[in-house]
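ARCHIVE CARD
CATEGORY: sequence design from structure
SOURCE FIELD: tokenized fold
FIELD CONTENT:
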């Protein structure tokens, strides 16, 4: 048999194993509210090839490819346990098992590693929490996709309604079409139908009421059967507590803003300061996409090396706030054609760091350049550290942070030698460290951080909403601190 024959046979064997994983992963998700992960990447509703690609990606960050032959025994072991709602990372299980020297069987090790989610320790499945989207633009539609995707178990978050201004004939049909097809993020994974008579979009069985309103104060959500809901404001029209309080109508319990909050509105970056949200806080902000991209790696670097000062330069994709062609704009430079120019503009991300990381004493400055790409940006974080280090040390540290730390859902890591912006469309992390571009000289470190400023940010928003709603289930094995 030739090398080619061996490779093909090996591939077919792995295909067969991955195919057999799908019903096990699906059953755990539907019946027990367990999300199976691989190095923080969900395997729920993934195809055979997607499962294999996710395993192969591990070599970029862990140094060696992870095979389904290694993870399948752990998945089988999970199906024998009395599991409660949780997230379980097969990659972490396999990695920790290799390092364990006690001679335990896979079944024994798995039972011990996820003991917090089994038997008397398991938490109860939460009742669905209603969610309302106020505004249905770029972020609103991506958040909708994520909420629909995560509704598979029937628990957790339930998208009940979207609120928009009336747009004339076939308004709901056009909005459903924009949810179904996206020029950047591709087709919606599932089916969408429209009931114009009842003003309802049905996506993968989720009935979503479309409410037309010009002002928050005109809506009574209880008349649509909505109770105790979390409203996500995607318009950015109101950013302070007074303005956002207009959303606290009958049926609405909390308001989450998908833009930087002003005044005393808490700016939350999931993974960094989400645990500071007070239980009775009704209004909060998820800050900006750039703030979410830079704060987790900034915290990681400050924890290990100390940060004395820093500057962030973002090279940012253009947004709807800019003009397609030269035309009047109230802001400087943004009136010039977005697809044809690089446009220097301001960023509030640097000043927002203080809200998310109040213990960081370093002064962080920032600026931004909008460039002619529709999605994915890069933040260049230039830091003066409190001690000298080497490129190799920082490289290995950030790789480990992306794999095993509490920030592993926020920070990803790539060693791909020819990575470019479009490679990170659809990334669910807040930012991705580009290992090849990393520069370190004594006490100076320069990090290049890619981020999908649409989808990655939307994932962070949903994580915050899960947290405040009480449906953010614990992850096992427990991450290193």
């Amino acid at each position: 048999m030739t090398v080619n024959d061996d490779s093909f046979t090996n591939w077919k064997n792995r295909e067969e194993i991955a195919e057999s994983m799908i019903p096990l992963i699906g059953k755990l998700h539907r019946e027990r509210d367990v999300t199976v992960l691989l190095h923080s990447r969900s395997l729920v509703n993934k195809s055979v090839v997607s499962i294999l690609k996710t395993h192969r990606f591990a070599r970029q960050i862990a140094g060696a490819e992870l095979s389904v032959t290694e993870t399948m025994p752990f998945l089988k072991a999970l199906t024998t346990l009395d599991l409660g709602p949780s997230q379980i990372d097969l990659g972490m299980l396999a990695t920790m098992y290799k390092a364990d020297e006690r001679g335990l069987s896979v079944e024994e090790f798995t039972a011990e590693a996820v003991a917090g989610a089994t038997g008397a320790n398991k938490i109860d499945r939460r009742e669905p929490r209603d969610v309302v989207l106020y505004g249905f633009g770029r972020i609103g539609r991506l958040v909708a996709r994520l909420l629909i995707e995560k509704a598979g178990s029937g628990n957790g978050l339930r998208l009940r309604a979207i609120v928009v201004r009336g747009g004339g004939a076939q308004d709901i049909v056009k909005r459903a079409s924009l949810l179904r097809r996206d020029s950047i993020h591709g087709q919606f994974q599932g089916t969408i139908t429209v009931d114009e008579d009842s003003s309802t979009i049905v996506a993968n069985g989720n009935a979503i009421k479309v409410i037309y309103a010009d002002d928050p104060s005109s809506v009574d959500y209880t008349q649509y059967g909505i109770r105790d809901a979390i409203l996500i404001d995607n318009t950015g029209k109101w950013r302070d507590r007074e303005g956002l309080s207009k959303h606290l109508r009958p049926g609405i319990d909390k308001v989450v803003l998908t833009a930087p909050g002003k005044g005393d509105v808490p700016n939350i970056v999931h993974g960094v300061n989400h645990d500071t949200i007070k239980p009775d806080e009704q209004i909060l902000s998820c800050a900006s996409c750039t703030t979410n991209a830079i704060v987790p790696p900034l915290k990681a670097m400050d924890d290990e090396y100390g940060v004395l000062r820093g500057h962030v330069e973002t090279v940012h994709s253009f947004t709807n706030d800019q003009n397609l062609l030269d035309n009047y704009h109230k802001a400087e430079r943004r009136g010039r054609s977005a697809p044809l120019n690089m446009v220097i503009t301001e960023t509030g991300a640097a000043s927002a760091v203080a809200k998310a990381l109040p213990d960081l004493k370093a002064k962080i400055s920032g600026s931004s350049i909008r460039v002619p790409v529709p999605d994915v940006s890069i933040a260049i974080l230039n830091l003066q550290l409190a001690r000298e280090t080497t490129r190799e040390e920082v490289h290995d540290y950030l790789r480990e942070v992306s794999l095993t730390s509490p920030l592993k859902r926020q920070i990803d890591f790539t060693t791909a030698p020819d990575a470019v912006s479009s490679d990170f469309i659809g990334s669910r992390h807040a930012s991705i460290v580009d290992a090849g571009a990393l520069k370190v000289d004594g006490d100076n470190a320069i990090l290049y951080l890619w981020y999908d400023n649409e989808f990655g940010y939307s994932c962070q928003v949903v994580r915050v909403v899960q947290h405040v709603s009480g449906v953010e289930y614990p992850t096992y094995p427990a991450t290193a601190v």
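CARD ANNOTATION: The longest helix spans residues 3-32. The two ends are 48 Å apart (CA to CA).
SHELF: design records, drawer C
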